[in-house]
Amino acid sequence: MTQSMTPAGLDRLHAAMAARVESGELPGLVLLVARGDQVHVDCLGVKAFGSTEPMRRDTVFRIGSMTKPVLAAATLLLVEEGKLGPGDPVDRWLPELADRRVLRRIDGPLDDTVPARRPITVDDLLTLRMGSGILVEPTFNPPFPIVQAADALQLVLGQPDPRTPHAPDEWIRLFGTLPLMYQPGERWQYNVGSLVLSVLLARVAAQPLEELLRRRIFEPLGMRETGFWLPADLTRKLPSYYMGDPGTGQLELQPVSGPEEWSRPPAFPSGAGGLVSTVDDFLAFARLLLHKGVHEGTRLLSEQSVEHMTMNHLTPQQMATAGPILGDRGWGYGVEVVTRPEPEWPVPGRYGWGGGYGTAWFNDPHRGLVAMAMTQVSDFLWNGGLDEFDRLVATI
């Protein structure tokens, strides 16, 4: 029998998050904690500073990189059908990425390269070890030639806002003109593997990524308000998006990712960060993983696929060099994996991920628990808000 959630623990979580809203750290957020048949949802504050429109259980959020595990699950569905395998070279479907060259030095000129020692594989994309991704040293996306070249091509490799003007085929063509930063399989680097995987899946399935996700994941799970875009009557109610000024820390309304952008199909459906969703929709997906691939008595994903998705695939060295995005945790397929005991969580095995707009989710299979915090303030992820949320959920 699943242990019930404690009212005292829920009260502590509510009080702490409400204090952050009342202090002006964020205008509002929606919390969800579920164990067994129990689902607790707490809606705090409003959708924008100065607004009177409250956060609601059905509020639609830009979920950013919480898109990645959905993309990984779709990949594993195709693996189960034999349409591709983790060890398959991706240039079978992406000839733009055949015969890769690799920078001799990460800060060197684009023409100073060596041959890739092997092709990029599907597993490299799933585990973000393809040889290209966000750089975090010596600073976030330093002004190296490779970073400047990607920016000039408008590839949008690392920002929370996923919009690029290029359709998938044009995007992969342009990306293929750049060398890799590191050898395939060598290092964990964030984000870009999921962008490439977005193009790959559409080609393997012979249908747009949006259609693949809708037919294979969203419709079977009843995720009716999840997609790369939604009707205007839903998207116009998106919460405002804020991020702190790097110099002052003052929260500023961001001019990107406005509601109108989400009311029409994007040029590039980004499996790295392009979905909007609600807490209840994403709960259906989270429970699919927690229940080892079964949704309401129907198996949608094999137990083996879920195990591969939620286990760590990185070596100790790759974890040590992953940088602050991952910290000292592991990585599965589209999810962070806790590999060692932590003070409030003595049994490892939690997995999940967050999104750059200010959303976060994790499953704890040991306790049969799902937890989510959704806001649209990026700073919530690094100003202590998410850490406090994690600690307090442990007491529930």
- Spans of at least 5 consecutive residues whose pLDDT stays below 50 are none
**Quaternary form:** single chain
Q: What helical percentage do the residues reach?
A: 25-40%
Distance between the termini: 16 Å
- The name CATH uses for the topology of the largest domain is Beta-lactamase
Beta-strand share of residues = 15-25%
For the record, what is the CATH homologous superfamily label of the largest domain?
DD-peptidase/beta-lactamase superfamily
Tally of separate helices: 12
Supply the helix-strand structural class.
alpha+beta
Q: What integer is the average pLDDT? A: 96
Q: Which architecture of the largest domain per CATH?
A: 3-Layer(aba) Sandwich
Q: Tell me the count of domains.
A: 2
Placed side by side, the strands forming the largest sheet appear as 2-1-15-14-13-12-11
Tally of DSSP β-strands: 15
User: Radius of gyration, rounded?
Assistant: 20 Å
CATH class of the largest domain: Alpha Beta
Characterization of the model:
The chain is of the alpha+beta class and 396 residues long. It has 2 domains: 7-72 and 208-393, Beta-lactamase; 83-205, Methane Monooxygenase Hydroxylase, Chain G, domain 1 (Up-down Bundle), CATH 1.20.58. 29% of the residues lie in helices and 15% in strands. It has helices at residues 7-22, 67-80, 122-126, 145-152, 168-175, 192-205, 209-221, 232-235, 279-290, 303-309, 316-320, 385-393; strands at 28-35, 38-45, 61-64, 101-103, 113-115, 242-244, 251-253, 275-277, 294-295, 298-299, 330-331, 336-337, 351-355, 359-364, 369-374. The strands form 5 sheets. The protein has a 7-stranded antiparallel beta sheet, with helices on both faces. Strands 3-8 form a two-stranded antiparallel sheet. Strands 4-5 form a two-stranded antiparallel sheet. β9 (294-295) and β10 (298-299) form a beta hairpin. α2 packs parallel to α6 (192-205) and α2 crosses α7 (209-221). It is globular. The mean pLDDT is 96.
